[in-house]
Amino acid sequence: MFLENPISGTKKRGWIEVVSGSMFSGKTEELIRRMKRAKIAQQRVEIFKPKIDKRYSEMRVVSHDANSIHSTPVAKSIDILALSENIEVVGIDEAQFFDNQLVDVCNELANKGVRVIVAGLDMDFQGKPFGSMPALFAIAEYVTKVHAICMRCGNLAHHSHRLSADDNLVVVGEKEIYEPLCRDCYHEAINESEKEESLTTLR
Ligand code: ZN
User: Fold this and answer.
1) Is CATH 3.30.2140.20 what the domain over 2-148 is classified as, yes or no?
2) Which residues make Cβ contacts (< 8 Å) with residue 189, sequence separation at least 6?
3) Tens of pLDDT, residues 127-161
């Protein structure tokens, strides 16, 4: 497969890959896997993530199975350009939390010959496309959707169902706050909580 053999010819070619899915779908693990392989191939790699994600440690991209790799937190997507001079493979984690300029930043890097691998949530907890992810899907050469397992029925999960009542979109996920659900179970869960809500207002 092309993505597994990314070095071809003498001309430096850039492109964009997107790895996306719900919470616990393994998208960060897949990003790390690709970055580690690039490193083994003697390429200069760097992972960036938004400063907003304070889970675990500042300087490492940490996936849920504790398979981690060094990363650089940045405040704005434009900062990635200045920090990735001489980098051959740029990884971007939690891309849904970056500002909208990330789309231009990824294009600029790829146009310069950089391989860009972007990982992020495709949908927020309401099932709506998240941040710049839809635009990144559109401009990427390669899009990979990864799936968690539905916590209720065991099918492939498509949604991140939020179990807490906080309305802030920037609640970064933990098992206690989100559960991955398939399309059917997600809509069942939404209906259940709507019923509960109408019951409490009736009381
Ligand atoms: Zn299900």
Assistant:
1) no
2) 152, 161, 181
3) 999 999 999 999 999 999 999 999 999 999 999 99
